[in-house]
Design goal:
By secondary structure, this protein is an alpha/beta fold. It is built from 4 helices and 6 strands; from the N terminus they run βαβαββαβαβ. The protein has a single domain, classed as Rossmann fold.
Length: 188
């Protein structure tokens, strides 16, 4: 395996309100000047594609997604997943990926089971206000105000994490004081 650096993966469904957070952040990051060893990809809801990309020799990855943790909408989280092996009697549904859905927990379990060697994976999450699935907002496109306001902060935070991952001095890229760090599992 050759070191291909850092993969930044935008995750989300643009038709479900704040679920598009990762997609928007990936689009903004793709317009920035990043080190050559960083690849930014908008995976949307393509879990299989993300699995294959993580198996493609990336040393580290940052997944960017809307993530409900119980904080106020727009709160950013840096989560370092702790994935436990599933027992032999695990439900087979825990291993199935839909080509039209994205479940980061399942993706990471599959990559681990397939001997993926990504040394470090972080999830930069943003607390959503709405997934646009309420009756009056069925299929709403566009981010809510607090989540849209967190996009630029997330870009700065991710640039800082990239610098840290590449063992460089983090650049001063705006304030990143509005986030929380967590170590936890990623339930399906």
């Amino acid at each position: 395996m050759t070191d291909k650096g850092v993969l930044v993966a935008g995750i989300g469904n643009v038709f479900l309100g704040d679920d598009a957070f990762g997609v928007e952040v990936a689009q903004r990051l793709s317009q920035r000047q990043l080190p050559q060893r960083v690849r930014v990809v908008d995976f949307g809801i393509r879990g299989m594609d993300l699995s294959y990309a993580l198996l493609d020799g990336f040393d580290q990855a940052i997944l960017v997604d809307a993530r409900q943790q119980g904080g106020p909408p727009g709160t950013l989280y840096v989560i370092e997943p702790e994935l436990e092996d599933k027992p032999d009697d695990a439900d087979p549904q825990d291993w199935l990926l839909s080509p039209h859905d994205m479940d980061p927990g399942k993706v990471l379990r599959i990559v681990k089971a397939m001997a993926g060697r990504c040394r470090r994976i972080l999830l930069v999450g943003c607390e959503p206000a709405s997934f646009g699935t309420e009756t009056e907002e069925q299929g709403r496109m566009g981010l809510s105000e607090p989540v849209a306001a967190a996009v630029d902060e997330a870009v700065g935070l991710i640039e800082s994490l990239i610098s840290e991952m590449l063992d460089r001095e983090p650049e001063k890229v705006g304030t990143t004081s509005h986030y929380q760090r967590h170590r936890c599992d990623l339930p399906s």
